[in-house]
Amino acid sequence: MFTWQASLPLTLAALVLGYLLGSIPFGLILTRMAGLGDVRKIGSGNIGATNVLRTGNRKLAAATLLLDALKGTAAAALAARFGQDAGIAAGLAAFLGHLYPVWLGFKGGKGVATYVGVLLGLVPLMLPVFAALWIGTAWLTRLSSLSALVATAISPVVVWFIGNPKVAVLFAILTVISWWKHRANIARLMSGTESRIGDKG
């Protein structure tokens, strides 16, 4: 067991690792490499997969989704080799890195893919649960934001009931932050003006 003197450097290292991995703006990098310009200048201005999809390039959007998820998985899983607390710290930092990357003036994405990646890194059995919630809501509504809100709201509760309270608290925190980042989407959902999956506007 780590003493606080030993665990503090480990936690700091996990935070740095997580943030650096999480702050890689794959959506921006991939769209520029594909010659599609700056994804921040189209649609919502977001660097995530949903906005990349508005370029009309589904493969690029899928690649963005995968890489944004895997950076969260890598951070959480690598750090978790040194203990659950380190994994939690790295997962939190990866999520915050995606939302607030230093390279982009702390203006990043909304973190849903990275949220899923951290979930996979810490509680792999939750991946199909999250996927079912997201896909089911998306199939019914074609609303990416609502799908994310539903899946992130329910996931911490499920994690708690499967017996992992520390990780459940982490995802409760990530959910609150994610909902805050989606506040404009929530307002549009309430007014009926939210863009649907596949819209380019």
Structure description:
This protein has 201 residues and is an all-alpha fold. The chain has helices at 4-22, 26-33, 49-53, 58-80, 84-99, 112-122, 127-141, 144-161, 165-181, 183-191. The protein has one domain (4-191). The protein has 10 helices and no strands. The N and C termini lie far apart (53 Å). Mean pLDDT is 91; it is low at 1-6.
Main beta-sheet annotation: none
**Structural class by secondary-structure content:** mainly alpha
* First and last CA, distance: 53 Å
Instruction: Provide the number of structural domains.
Output: 1
Rg, rounded, reads 17 Å
Order of helices and strands: HHHHHHHHHH
Which segments are poorly predicted (pLDDT under 50) over 5 or more consecutive residues?
Answer: 1-6
**Overall geometric form:** globular
Helix content: over 70%
What is the count of helical runs? 10
Number of E-type strands: 0
Q: Give the DSSP E fraction (strand runs of 2 or more residues).
A: under 5%
Mean pLDDT: 91
Task: Please describe the structure with a list of short key phrases separated by commas or semicolons.
disordered N terminus, 10 helices, 0% strand
